[in-house]
């Protein structure tokens, strides 16, 4: 089994959320939250700020920890066949954009970042991370956990 620790930014302004369009080397693109892998010896708090800057071109500050999501993706459901099952542990933060200008990720897999009306999110092909992050931001559960998000249709791993 492979493993990844990642930090994700839930950036909400008014009734809009900041989404990033991920274009992988293999497979279809989908919308996700800004964020990604926590580097060796890096704090997830610092990682989410770095990832927002790298992927969107914007400066950000963390407002609060929203929660942690752990999910195992079966090998049969991986985007690239032949890979083992994968566990992703995501640390979700409420983040506020403080400056910068939206742009694609240079030499990366984020083609664009867009402020998206939250009401429109259900109609786009997206990572389940988007639903987890929005649910955490909306409900602020005392346990910092939300129920598993079913994958299928427009919701991808």
Plain-language structure description:
This protein is of the alpha+beta class and 157 residues long. The protein has a single domain (2-156), classed as Nucleoside Triphosphate Pyrophosphohydrolase. It contains two helices and ten strands. The protein is globular and about 40 Å long. The relative contact order is 0.27. The mean pLDDT is 95.
Describe what is shown at a glance:
This protein has helices at 44-56, 128-139; strands at 2-10, 12-13, 16-22, 30-32, 35-37, 58-73, 86-100, 110-117, 126-127, 155-156. It is built from two helices and ten strands. The protein is α+β, with helices and mostly antiparallel strands and 157 residues long.
What would the keywords be for this entry?
about 160 residues; alpha+beta; Nucleoside Triphosphate Pyrophosphohydrolase; about 15% helix
Largest sheet: 4 strands, mixed
Distance between the termini: 16 Å
- Rounded to an integer, what's the Rg over CA atoms? 15 Å
Mean pLDDT: 95
Question: CATH superfamily, called what?
Answer: Nucleoside Triphosphate Pyrophosphohydrolase
Number of strands: 10
**Helix and strand sequence:** EEEEEHEEEEHE
With helices defined by DSSP (H or I, 4 residues minimum), what is the helix count?
2
Helix content: 10-25%
- What is the global morphology? globular
